[in-house]
Design brief:
Length: 271
């Protein structure tokens, strides 16, 4: 098994094997396998509740799975602890849904937080790095604003600046364009693509927005009911005959929708 410093572009930077997650009797993730490669942007596509956000939390080490392995740079995040786990976590940045800023802290303080907690840099250096990260995402001069003063798109950008604070090798984005108007959402998607091109990071984006997929994805993984039904390129996705893929592409309703939704559909003449 290669050491992290010996890994090449052909070696997965993230390997997921036999991953299962249960909440009580409900199995959210059902034995999935996936390889994610250096410098690619992988988009995990799927409907609400299919397990895609849970998977991101497993990768970053916020939640342990019930079973299986998540190897990030050859370290099993499902079993690692202490300095080994912390060392990997420092090289993973995560953009949470909504930005997840601390409302009692300024934008600058939010972005500086990882640097203050995980480095021994001087305050003056941290201030400079904070300004640079905010400039990078189009928020120059916003250091002293409070989160309540930001629009939804600005909060996402500030959250992205914080995710980039430690210069990560891996960036995880959970629904980055959710809740934004179409123009702002496209701006966030373009920003993610430019960041990948500039810094050659591995980026994993969870979304249910097809428009985002076409703009940023090198590969697509379709998740449905806790399993991956498809993994491949945009071209392969568009050509796939799988019913679940066609459903997404053609924006068809889920045939397994709850009974109440089927009743409402029948009232308006839908089949």
């Amino acid at each position: 098994m290669p050491k992290p410093e010996e890994m090449t572009m052909h070696d997965p930077i993230i390997q997921i094997r036999g991953l299962r997650t249960r909440y009580g009797r409900q199995e959210i993730i059902r034995g999935i396998d996936l390889d994610i490669y250096p410098r690619e942007t992988l988009v995990i596509l799927g409907g609400s509740g299919c397990g895609k956000s849970t998977l991101l939390r497993h990768i970053v080490g916020l939640q342990r799975p019930t079973q299986g392995q998540i190897l990030v740079k050859e370290v099993d995040m499902a079993a690692a602890a202490g300095e080994e786990r912390d060392g990997v976590c420092k090289k993973i940045g995560m953009l949470f849904q909504g930005g997840a800023l601390f409302n009692s802290m300024t934008v600058g303080e939010n972005v500086a937080l990882p640097l203050e907690e995980h480095t021994r840099l001087e305050s003056s250096t941290i201030r400079i790095m904070t300004r640079l990260k905010l400039e990078m995402v189009g928020l120059a001069g916003c250091e002293d604003l409070m989160p309540a003063q930001l629009s939804g798109g600005m909060k996402k950008r500030a959250g992205l600046a914080r995710a980039l604070a430690m210069d990560p090798d891996i960036l995880l984005c959970d629904e980055p364009s959710a809740g934004l108007d179409p123009i702002v959402a496209v701006g966030i998607d373009h920003l993610i693509r430019k960041l990948q091109q500039a810094f050659r990071m591995t980026i994993v984006v969870v979304t249910h927005e097809l428009e985002s997929v076409w703009l940023i994805a090198d590969r697509i993984a379709l998740m449905h009911a806790g399993r991956f039904l498809f993994v491949g390129s945009q071209e392969e996705f568009k050509a796939s005959p799988l019913p679940e893929v066609r459903q997404f592409l053609e924006r068809q309703p889920d045939p397994n929708q709850p009974e109440g939704e089927r009743y409402l559909a029948s009232l308006v003449g839908e089949r």
